[in-house]
Amino acid sequence: MDTRFTDEELAFQAEVRNFFAEVLDEELKAMLHGGEASTQLEEGMIEYQKRLNARGWMAPGWPVEYGGQDWTMTRHFIFNAERAKAGLPAPIPFGVTMVAPVIYTYGTEEQKERFLPRILNSEDWWCQGYSEPGAGSDLASLQCKAERDGDEYVVNGSKIWTSFAQAADWIFCLVRTDNSGRKQDGISFLLIDMNTPGVTVSPIETIDGIYHLNEVHFDNARVPMDNRIGEEGKGWTYAKSLLVHERLSIAEVAESKRNLEQVRELARAEVNGGESLLDDPLFANRLAEVEIDLMALEFTELRVLAAAAEGGMPGPESSLLKLQGTTIQKAIQELRMDVAGYYSQAQQGDLSSSQVGHDFADVAQKLYFRGRASSIYGGSDEVQKNVTAKHVLGL
Amino acid sequence: MNFNLSEEQTMIQDSIARFVQDNYDYDQRNKVVALEHGFSAEHWQQFAELGWLSIPFAEEYGGFGGGPVDTMVIMQELGRGLVAEPFLPTVLLFGGLLQAGGSEEVKHELIPQIIAGQLQGAFAFLERQSRYALTDIKTRARQDGVSWVLNGEKTVVLNGGAAEKLVVLARSSGEQADKNGLSLFLVDSSAAGVTATSYKMTDGRDAANVKLDNVTAEALIGGPGEGYALMGPVIERATLAVAADALGAMESLNAQTLEYLKTRKQFGAHIGSFQALQHRMVDMFAACENTRSLLYRAVCALDARDEDARRSLLALKVMVGRSGRKIGGEGIQMHGGMGMTEELSVGAYVKRLMIANTLFGDADYQQQRFSALVNAPVKAAAAVEAA
């Protein structure tokens, strides 16, 4: 039992740290609005992703033949940790992390050649078409249908909660190609060009005031059969296998560590009745409580990684990563709001945050409201618990 | 990076698990704790023969030279099996203190006796007013020629009834709550002026109050005033051990509760089919895994003498208290009326976990210390740190 890095791993850590320090120059910092965990589609993200790609590190998790790195799990862990420490976000996941593994695992050679290089180079932006107005946590009940007509599918229906559909070139969709059997069996995996006639996007206003969510409608949209991944009716299996790729950093431990330190420093500087907020034992203990949970989660993640590194199946504890990761993220966002106090509640208008009270209040507010979604998307907390109860505990 | 046990550690684990399997079902355990001193001398002898008592001691005293991981492995199995024999008080506390500060003469004389299973010991540190503050000590030690004479009363001395020798924490100088001026003394339980009054802890294990009335100590352990510094690392190791013991108990109680959910039927269905219970069982599973993760974290940090060790250990002890309370409370609730009975071992596990919470400082206390360490509040946190 040993968690020390080897000399070789320490050297790699230094290399990665230097790389991110160089990547995040003043120009990029400005483009990323200071480098604070932006996940918006914007010029800064594109520039950042292109720099990653130039170094060969846009998609280290991919197989080497498609542009990935032959890294150990520990190296992946170090890479992600150093990236988060530098204050840089992961690449926008829909292309590189979510659809690409399905393409390189189940796609044809033509599909791989057509899509993977453009994802690496940030030329194509992707969005995800899974949820529907009538299919949220019960995703397999989805009804958006694709009917064969010659060598095309005719797609009709709607997808909802589609992040960044407004800027996407492509959407990867789960569609229903068969209604006769078990609901999981009649689902296929389709790649749809967003410029296809009959595809329309309507925005959804959200409580964080950031435009990222949409509804995507398909009205007799004609999609070539060539755009189907793998076999018809196997889409559910493909989509589920994708979750394994998300597991690596799903807990966002490094990001939470950084955010927690930021909140602590904000609280240290915050004065209430002449005393630092950190001297308020209630606040300090809440901060401590979250930190203890985070320290536990950090090692839960290491346990999962260590098991994966040895080629074993991830242990039952891996089912907790998302649930506990988002619980902690939300708690830190709440603390940040509490540090901002009154000022956290002001909407930005003619006066800036710092004129109202605190320059960090606006960020606190956005992180908080956007963060409420984390325990809903990607399998809500309740779904996570259902899955753990069934598959881990055998209930 | 790996979380694997060595071959030797796996062997120790297997051998304790086998012992528990053969000797420690719930009825057998009840007979053991009903014995005088709350444990079986035969079992203890068996522990010695199997070599378990030697594991934490240095090789030069006949030990195995084991580290924190070895201690963890042993204690986790003992906790899982609700084993009542006094490994913590005799080997880890009493033996640990001797090894940390005893003279070579004392070590060479006594440690082999512990390893052979021939000597029971205890660490008498707590007093009625102390609560979790290890420095709040009134027992006085005064020098009388070459010897030290002790006066005071110690309480909740684990294994205090069976212990033939004690290490006593006493004040050789300074005021009641001073960190300085604390010293450790080796005391023979049969010495004139020592009165031990035994009682049971809630889970059937044995403790005692020990009155010291002009007792002449056999030896000073370490130098005068070095008590606080000497016992720190020993208590750290013991805290880790208590956490491992608690983790074993949590695993076992969770397994028992899960089994009950799968077999108990109400309203025509297994109660484990009810989502209200499923989600709570997942929370209990998570509480156990969080404890395991922090235990591994602390054990690796202590093993590597990492700077993160202190923070990890405090976090661990908080989690032991928090998770133990959740798993214990829910374990009773999910067993319904049966959880209230002595027929099942549920209650014994709950009590074991509650004792683990209090040992060396409960969750609230440790969380405050943790907070003082990590938040370094602007105002001096000295008061908390001093403890």
Automatic annotation (TrEMBL), chain A:
Single GO molecular function: oxidoreductase activity, acting on the CH-CH group of donors
Domain Acyl-CoA dehydrogenase/oxidase N-terminal, chain residue ranges per copy: 6-122
InterPro entries: Acyl-CoA_Oxase/DH_mid-dom, Acyl-CoA_Oxase/DH_mid-dom_sf, AcylCo_DH-like_C, AcylCo_DH/oxidase_C, AcylCoA_DH/ox_N, AcylCoA_DH/ox_N_sf, AcylCoA_DH/oxidase_NM_dom_sf, Mycobact_Acyl-CoA_DH
Domain Acyl-CoA oxidase/dehydrogenase middle: 127-220
Domain Acyl-CoA dehydrogenase/oxidase C-terminal: 233-392
Source taxon at top rank: Bacteria
A Pfam family matched in the record: Acyl-CoA_dh_1
SUPFAM superfamilies tied to this protein: Acyl-CoA dehydrogenase C-terminal domain-like (SSF47203), Acyl-CoA dehydrogenase NM domain-like (SSF56645)
UniProt KW keywords: FAD, Flavoprotein, Oxidoreductase
Cofactors that this protein relies on: FAD
Key word Oxidoreductase present: yes
A GO CC term assigned to this protein in UniProt: plasma membrane
Family (UniProt): Belongs to the acyl-CoA dehydrogenase family.
Cited PANTHER family: ACYL-COA DEHYDROGENASE (PTHR43292), ACYL-COA DEHYDROGENASE FADE29 (PTHR43292:SF3)
Record's protein name: Pimeloyl-CoA dehydrogenase large subunit
Species name: Pseudohalioglobus sediminis
From TrEMBL, chain B:
Alphabetized GO MF terms: acyl-CoA dehydrogenase activity; flavin adenine dinucleotide binding
Cofactor(s) the protein requires to work: FAD
Key words of the record: FAD, Flavoprotein, Oxidoreductase
InterPro entries membership: Acyl-CoA_Oxase/DH_mid-dom, Acyl-CoA_Oxase/DH_mid-dom_sf, AcylCo_DH-like_C, AcylCo_DH/oxidase_C, AcylCoA_DH/ox_N, AcylCoA_DH/ox_N_sf, AcylCoA_DH/oxidase_NM_dom_sf
Acyl-CoA oxidase/dehydrogenase middle domain location: 122-210
One Pfam family cited in the UniProt record for this chain: Acyl-CoA_dh_1
Residue ranges constituting the Acyl-CoA dehydrogenase/oxidase C-terminal domain according to the UniProt record: 227-366
Residue stretches making up the Acyl-CoA dehydrogenase/oxidase N-terminal domain: 6-117
Family statement: Belongs to the acyl-CoA dehydrogenase family.
Name of the protein in question: Pimeloyl-CoA dehydrogenase small subunit
Organism in which the protein naturally occurs: Pseudohalioglobus sediminis
